[in-house]
Amino acid sequence: MLPRVLLCGRFPGEIEYVQDEFKGMFNGIAEVVDLVLISSPQFGPGGPYEGTIALYRRNTSSEVLGKFDAPLIHALADTSMVRWIAQSGGGYDEIDVQACKERGISVSNTPGANEDATATATLYLMLSCLRHFSMAERSLRSGTWKTPYNAAQTHDVTGRTLGILGLGGIESVPDWCEYVSSVEELCKQADILSLHVPLNQSTAGMIGEKEIRTLRRNSVLLNTSRGRIVDQEAMVRALEDGHLSSVGLDVYPDEPRVDPRLLTFPRCTLLPHIGGESAESWRVRELQALGNLRAFVLGGVGQDIVPELKTGIDNSTTL
Q1: How would you write the chain as a 3-class SS string?
Q2: Which pLDDT score is estimated for 317?
Q3: Is 308 a catalytic residue?
Q4: In the prediction, which pLDDT does 293 show?
Q5: Active-site entry in 226, 267, 285, 294
Q6: Do the beta carbons of residue 178 and residue 205 sit within 8 Å?
Q7: For residues 225 and 197, is the Cβ–Cβ distance under 8 A?
Q8: Strand order across the beta sheet in which 52-57 lies
Q9: pLDDT for 2-29, tens place per residue?
Q10: Residues in the chain with pLDDT < 70?
């Protein structure tokens, strides 16, 4: 009997963009099984997922199984042979990495797979916030042309200082970028603050009241990383009193719920967590995640193991 690899998705055939390549990746080395049982999966003898050694998941898997929190991880370890979880995506905050470490389950992700998509989404958010493009488009579509648009309240990019917190999956920056010594110093200098850090215990809420008020008045805040990196209450207060002129958001603390107060600020640009999604980025993401699975099946160890499991750093968990 071949070992099994389980695709944890909302529907059978979770692989969407690399189906042709996928068909040959596991021939003769593993049986690929779709998750079809909504309730607790049965990995024991005689169960539909007996012999499963690895899982493929994406964030939408939570709609079926919930977050891969400590109870779920311990249940997997107690009732199955699963020793690898391949996350399709760079973010893995929905997986309790510490619990995986304790139970000998490795976790991989797909760093770099959506760099281009996220970068261009961030650029769009910045331009839209500075020039109020989103508001202008809504005005046109509603038949009011550019009545609410006020050019005197918009700004060009030229002459603005962009502060970038974190590098995302990018390993190097141009020579003309300047490193600063602290988040506080970054906020002091920035007209636009763009967030690109993973969500873990050390980054949750790292942009709070103090950091936002350290930004220059009428500054712009961009977030394409994770919603809970920002103190949402502090952000809304700063929008209400004008300290922040606008925010460009692709992520929110309690997705898919969006705080209705954010919808009342017409200058803000809000996206439904699509910044890293394009046909090209999804293709790379699926191939990379499946490649990690295949390497594990063939050799007992895959690639792209998340940093906490490489170095033993204990600072990531489900949040």
Answers
A1: CCCEEEEECCCCCCCCCCHHHHHHHCCCCCEEEECCCCCCCCCCCCCCCCCEEEEEECHHHHHHHCCECHHHHHHHHHHCCCCEEEECCCCCCCECHHHHHHCCCEEECCCCCCHHHHHHHHHHHHHHHHHCHHHHHHHHHCCCCCCCCCHHHCCCCCCCCEEEECCCCCCCCCCCCCCCCCHHHHHHHCCEEEECCCCCCCCCCCECHHHHHHCCCCEEEEECCCHHHECHHHHHHHHHCCCEEEEEECCCCCCCCCCHHHHHCCCCEECCCCCCCCHHHHHHHHHHHHHHHHHHHHHCCCCCECHHHHHCCCCCCCC
A2: 45
A3: no
A4: 95
A5: 226
A6: no
A7: yes
A8: 31-34, 4-8, 52-57, 84-87, 106-108
A9: 999 999 876 666 788 999 999 899 999 9
A10: 10-13, 37-41, 44, 169-171, 311-319
CA distance 41 to 38: 8
CA distances from 14 to 22, 150, 301 (A): 11, 46, 23
What integer pLDDT is reported at residue 43 of this predicted model? 73
The pLDDT of residue 65: 80
Catalytic residue flag (residue 131): no
Phi, psi torsion values for 32, nearest 5 degrees: -95, 125
Per residue in 207-246, pLDDT (tens digit) is 999 999 999 999 999 999 999 999 999 999 999 999 999 9
Residue of 102, 184, 233, 255 marked catalytic: 255
Q: Which of 74, 103, 273, 283 is catalytic?
A: 273
Whether 132 is a known active-site residue: answer: no
C-beta separation of 222 from 122 below 8 A: yes
Structure tokens at 286: 């699926």
